[in-house]
Amino acid sequence: MYVNNTSIKLPQDPHTVVWKYLDLSKFLDLLLSQKLFMSRSDKFEDQYEGTFSEPTFEEIKKLSQDNPDFLNYYKKHREKVAISSWHINEYESFAMWQIFTQNTEGLAIQSTIGRLQQSLQIEKEYQQYIGEVNYIDYKKEHIPFDDLFFPFLFKRKSFQYEGEVRIITDIGESEVKINEGLKINIDINTLIEKIYIHPKSENWYKNLVIQLVKQLGFDFTIEKSDLESEILI
Description:
The protein contains seven helices and eleven strands. By secondary structure, it is an alpha+beta fold. The longest helix has 13 residues, at 203-215.
């Protein structure tokens, strides 16, 4: 279930376009399971994920001098938070294709902020929050810690190209242990507005995706990326 947290920054326009770039196997897993995979926050490639900037860490260290469990709680909390990353952009991104898809056999899900919110309503066991990532200088700038989600909504400025918005699930109150990640129920037809096929893919690959999607009972609009369209001269 999506929960609105007013302290978390999010684009106000529900029609704001978001993207998820992934390979075919992950896409098929999404359709077959009708569940969205969310990665455990401390399993991301960025070792700073879910941690604090230097000014904030120094502040927390002072607060934890008489209460060491205070700092330990934040460290352990990363194991209880799972994240699904999406890219905010009105248009598809050449950089995202390069980073998040292998070879030429990838695709992109186009959705919106409003669709993300609505598609999460069928998940009843865990609550989800959606927030836009803030990009800051970790050596100079402060990350608030009056909300447990804030460490997961700040990243270093070197990741600013990601333009990321995140679905966050916190199972801190649950006895469930997350290994690599967590799957949550999601309304696939609400989530997906359109599918784009990798710009360098062959026609057979596009036809394969169309056929697989149809056989699984879905009727999405599927288009070849126009980043490789013919030059007009």
